[in-house]
Structure formats: C-alpha cells, structure tokens
Design brief:
This protein is of the alpha/beta class. It has 8 helices and 11 strands. The protein is 36% helix and 25% strand.
Length: 269
C-alpha cells in the first residue's frame, strides 16, 4: 500500500467515526523541501488534541505544519497555510472534510414530519425518536436516515451526541420534553431546542432549578421557546421557524431580514 493510499484509508476511517477531520497536502515547496510537493497527511480531533496519520516530509517544520493545520481544523474552514524555516518554505492546503450534521428530532408528532423533510432538504442526517412504535416508523418518516422506537430517556442515553448534533425536543407531552432535556443538557451538541410557550418554559426552568438544583446558567444553551419568530401557527410553519433557527446557529447568521440593510441605507440618504 502506498503512502497516499494509507492516508486516504485513514481519512475514510475517521469520517466513518464521525470525527472532524482534514486532509493536509503540500502544494508548493522550495529549498530542500522541493521533493515534498504532493505529500499528504490526515489530522483529526481526538478529545481536545490532534491525531495525525501520514508524514509530510517537512523535517523540523513538521510540528509547525501540524500545529497550523490543527488551528484550521478547529476553525472548520479549509485554508492555505505557509510554514518556513532554514530548510526552506512550503505551502499547505488544509482541506476540512465536512460530514453531514445530525438533526435528532425527539418526538414523532405533527411537527416532526415537516421538520424531518426540511432537515433532509438542508442536507442533515435525520434521526427521529419516539416511544410509540406506531409513530416512530419508516412508513411515516421515509425521508429519515434512522427511526428509533424506544423510551426517550434510554434511547438518548445510548445515542452518540457530538458538536455536529442538533437536537429538537417536540414530544407529545411536556414531561417527556423535560426528561429528555435532562438527558442531553450537559452533553455535546451544537443546538438543543425545546418547544413550549414563554410562560411554560420559564416555569419549567424555575422548577428544575428549585427541585433539581440545576443552576440557571446551565439553561442558557437551550433554545426555548424554540424557533425564530415568524408568526408561525401550523405544524409546517413551526417546522420552518425551527429549521431557520438551526441554520442560523449553524451558519452564524443574524436572523434579521436581508432587506433591512437596504431600507436603513435609504433612510440615511
């Protein structure tokens, strides 16, 4: 097996394990590093540290290259980087490999169906969970990548969550939303949203603070009431508002109308 084949196999294995990963390729080199052009390595996250497979052939600059590639991977944006030393200079392309994020919909009711469709349209891996087999079925959710019929708490405890998981709690009863929230509150996730009115959400958080001793600041990561305010009323409209908020969180948007800037510009003139 060649060097490139070994690196490619490591890349595929890491993607299968759903870890953030990047391919590092030497695209330009000069000095004594000229022969390294085309060399590749794979770098991925292992806890809070970087794991590397492959050798770029940069000698004393190898560590510098790996540190720089690690920062690119942390930022999740592909980038050209330069390393330089007495032995010469090299330019590397760090290509961050993006895996599909996971949309975990907890509750398979009337909002879940349009939400699952929107999730697939936005290129998410969609997982639907409900404790009722008659609701959590592939017949009702043919678009879902996975449908789980199991008790909420047990299924969530066994489900692998990470920084690319977006969780939506929309069960048939608020008690299930709350018990599910407690299962995911302190676990990795890019987004945790729970349905409910302003009054109910405040009451729930206050109750958990008083009865469970959960500090109020731990609820700051929870998007609840869920979704952007678009005046939604129907299940499909609510699903749109939820998916819009998830995209906003994922892409770093503002949630403001794009036409606002134009209108404000007119007022200034």
């Amino acid at each position: 097996m060649t060097h490139s084949e070994r690196v490619l196999r490591e890349l595929l294995n890491t993607l299968d394990q759903r870890r953030p990963v990047a391919m590092v390729t030497v695209v330009f080199a000069e000095g004594s590093l000229t022969g390294t052009v085309g060399r590749r390595a794979v770098i991925w996250e292992l806890g809070q540290h970087a794991e590397v497979r492959g050798d770029l052939g940069l000698g004393i600059l190898e560590a510098q290259a790996r540190d720089a590639a690690w920062k690119v991977l942390e930022a999740r944006r592909s980038k050209l980087i330069d390393v330089e030393g007495e032995s010469g200079r090299a330019q590397l392309f760090v290509e961050v490999q993006h895996r599909p994020p996971t949309l975990l919909i907890v509750g398979a009711g009337h909002i879940a169906m349009p939400l699952a469709k929107l999730g697939k349209m936005c290129d998410f891996d969609v997982v639907v969970l409900d404790d009722r087999a008659s609701f959590a079925s592939k017949e009702r959710f043919p678009m879902a990548d996975q449908v789980i019929a199991a008790p909420f708490e047990l299924a969530l405890r066994d489900f692998s969550l990470d920084e690319d998981t977006y969780i939506v709690l929309v069960t048939r009863g608020h008690q299930h939303d709350v018990s599910s929230l407690l299962e995911v509150l302190d676990r990795p996730a890019a987004y945790v949203g729970m349905i409910g009115s302003q009054r109910r959400v405040r009451a729930v958080f206050q109750l958990l603070e008083e009865e469970k001793g959960i500090p109020r600041e731990r609820f700051e990561r929870v998007y609840s009431p869920i979704g952007l305010d678009i005046g939604s009323e129907t299940p499909a409209e609510i699903a749109v508002s939820i998916m819009a908020e998830i995209v906003k969180v994922r892409r770093g948007g503002t949630g403001l109308p794009l036409s606002d800037e134009r209108r404000q510009g007119k007022k200034k003139r």
